[in-house]
Amino acid sequence: MNIFYPIQLLADWLTYSVFCIVSDTTLACAVNFFIYDTIKIFILLIVIIFAVSIIRSFLPPEKIRFILSHKNKYTGNVIASLLGIITPFCSCSAIPLFLGFVQAGVPLGTTFSFLVASPMINEVALVLLLGLFGWKIALIYIVSGLVIAILSGTVIGKMKVENLVESFVYQNSINANADQPNMTWSDRFAYAKKYTWDIIKKVWPFIIIGIALGAWIHGYVPTDFLARYAGADKWFAVPLAVLIGIPLYSNAAGIIPLVSALTEKGVAMGTTLAFMMAVTALSLPEFMILKRVMKIKLILIFAGIAGVGIVFTGYLFNWVL
What we know:
By secondary structure, the protein is mainly alpha-helical. The chain has a domain of about 220 residues. Helices cover about 75% and strands about 0% of the residues. The chain has 15 helices and no strands.
């Protein structure tokens, strides 16, 4: 049984009975898609973000830094990548915590694993992929994102590029052992409620815009138009999607509704996910901020390694699915 079936009934009622839109038209298709996806996505986001917020209440930044700085570098890469899933930052907002890791003495490769994983694989992306495509796609996405983050950090760590980080970053050390006040369960629920509301307030415009664009594509773009230029049989589709995504800037909430619409129109899943990964993890604004704390050579190394991983993942998805 489809647990979202009542939402579909509500979308049908609003589309055809309340708005009186003639069925089997492009407008009806677009409006129905917009209503259904908007309600479903917001319900999923509220539930999952609240649950993840409870988990995050046990992992303040100081504790995260302490854990990472006391692990060997390879284990640290894995843990940093896993922490990226439950730290729902965009690429730019993850940078302050990235700097905190460096200043706390966490290996540079480990911090890059976090910098890749945090925007690329977070609970927002997980919720939307789970709701739109099912658990198999969501699981493959998480695993591929983790592999990219772990390998990117590992390779950068082996390159010994600490000299490419601006010297002022290392001047101020952070007390990673700072004591944190113990939180009661009442405190944790209050924190989760506030955090969930704060996140929803920040991302809802991206969600609405993303779903609206997806609804327009769903209803008005000819079925074979996008498949003709970005189908799985086009070898250049994946790297082209990555290059197009880099200048853009959004979070997963705004991009994944487009992924749904694009795949429905025949664009290969790997191509659309590669586009999403590039937008969230390799954004131009992120590079501009990183320029303040590291040399261009290191930014290019980071972008190159992560970009190759994203392209490989795109091809892998197109081959497997």
